[in-house]
Amino acid sequence: MRAFREAVEAGDLDAVEALLAEDVVFTSPAVFKPYAGKAITAAILRGVVRVFEDFRYVREINDPGGRDHALVFTARVGDRELNGCDFLRVNEDGLIDDFMVMVRPLSGAQALAEAMGAQFDRIAKEAEAARSE
């Protein structure tokens, strides 16, 4: 998913959002219940950008059929370094309809969960505003 990776690496969150299907499902590394919908997924990704430092993709894995992609990354949250992977599936239109993130080690996942928890009121407001547009 070259377009997604390039948009993330460029910090172009509008381009990232444009690659999300309206019915995208986002599965967080820290919350059991997935989030459904483009507005909340885009707001979560904007929150992640605010808490990740030194983010970079280090590997890209694609399936031969072209629907499933994995982007391995490194980042830091506060003093915790972490490794993670964005698992993306695209629909027939080439838009991301399933977005799952996994993070390790546990201390990094906990730091991410805490930082994102502190962002969640803002994330919810951003998602609501986007739904109202």
How would you characterize this protein structure?
This protein is an alpha+beta fold. Helix content is 42%, strand content 38%. The chain is built from four helices and six strands; from the N terminus they run ααββαββββα. A six-stranded mixed sheet has the order 2-1-6-5-4-3. Helix 3 (38-51) crosses helix 4. The longest helix is centred in the C-terminal third of the chain and has 27 residues, at 106-132. It is globular and about 40 Å long.
Radius of gyration: 14 Å
Strand tally is 6
In terms of structural class, how would the helical and strand content be classed? alpha+beta
Unreliable spans are none
- Termini separation comes to 28 Å
Sum this structure up briefly.
With 133 residues, the protein is α+β, with helices and mostly antiparallel strands. Helices cover 42% and strands 38% of the residues.
Secondary structure layout:
Layout lengths: L1 H9 L2 H6 L1 E8 L7 E2 L1 H14 L1 E10 L5 E10 L2 E11 L5 E9 L1 H27 L1
Helix pairs in contact: 3-4
Primary descriptors:
single chain; 4 helices; alpha+beta
